[in-house]
Structure formats: C-alpha cells, structure tokens
Amino acid sequence: MKEYTARYITYDTAKTWTGLPKFAATTIPIGDQVATAISYENWKEAVIRLYPGVEESTRYTVNELHQLVQDNFDLSAYTLGTFSMYYHEFQKIFWWLLQHSKIHAHKERRLFQQGIPTLLWTKIARRLEILKLTHHSEDPYDVKDVYEAGNWHLKGTDTSVGIPRAKGILPVPTQPQVANNTVLTDSYIKKEDMEAAISTAVASAMT
User: Cβ contacts of residue 164 below 8 Å, gap of 6+?
Assistant: First the structure.
C-alpha cells in the first residue's frame, strides 16, 4: 500500500512521510533511494497527524450538515444542477455521520426536506401527493422520492449553476480575482500551494 501512496506525492513530501518514526521493516522506493516501514496502518496514522482536519473522526460534523441545509434553503435561484449537488452533498455527509453514530437515521428525511426552498418544495409535495396516495400526511417523504420529484420539476434548467458545500454555497469556479479585479492566470498559482493541496488530498483519501 505504501509504495502506491508514495507515487501520488512530490519527492520532498515522500521523503517527509517515509522519514516518520513509524517507518521500519518493508521498503519503498523514493527516487534512487529506499525507505522502510512497519505497518500501513501505523504509518497512515502518523501521516494523517501531519494534516490537521483530515482525521476520520472529524471529517464531518452535524453543524456542517445543518449549515448545508440552511445554505441550500436560502438560495434565491435554483436549478437542476444545484439540487443534484445538494442531494449528493447531503447524502455524503449524512451517511458518514450515521456510520459514526453522530446522528440518528430518522432525521434524514426531515432534514433533507428542510433544505429545499419553499417554492420548489410546494411543487414537489404536490407531485408526491399524486404519486404516493397511501402516504401519511404527517410522515416525511423518502429522500429518493423527493429527489426524483425535484428533478422532474427542474428538468430543462441549468445543470451547473452552483455547488452546495457544508460551509456555504460556492459558485462554479472561474478564474481567481484579486482586490483590484485583476484576473489571475493559472500560472500564478504557486507550486508550493499546489503540492500542499495534493499532499493533503492524498492524506485525506487515506482515512
């Protein structure tokens, strides 16, 4: 496992990772050199400690899920793309929290519905009332049914307007801007920042 992980990071980062005290026993090629390691799990724990915030136990919080729901509800413009991203982001966070005993399963349906803007929810509810004749009015609808009904009403709208995130709704990325409105080119991005981002992403994927 370690030799494959080392392929996705820079030479300098690999030297740092393989220089951790947890290393000993098996070998990993780093350029013209080799390093040794104990076990993948022990080594992984040591690597993850180098990147605060990527620990498995703190990947998501209930507050982040509630923030996602609120941010989505507050949107003034809503499209198929926005709704799809809300659904996928919600499912990703909710099921992680459920698997780690940080939230109860029965909260999924009501929470998901609370994030849908009033106008769209009214249309979704009307459609589900027609499709689900035996559904009790006081029970929240299944998330999958709500999602499909929402897609039906939003078909034909833009599929890439915004990307809901746990800490706010982010617009689709464009070229970065500075204070004086000068557009930055891709070459402006620092090599060090890119390398750090890649290393953090790899460490996060290890959790």
Answer: 68, 71, 72, 82, 85, 86, 89, 170
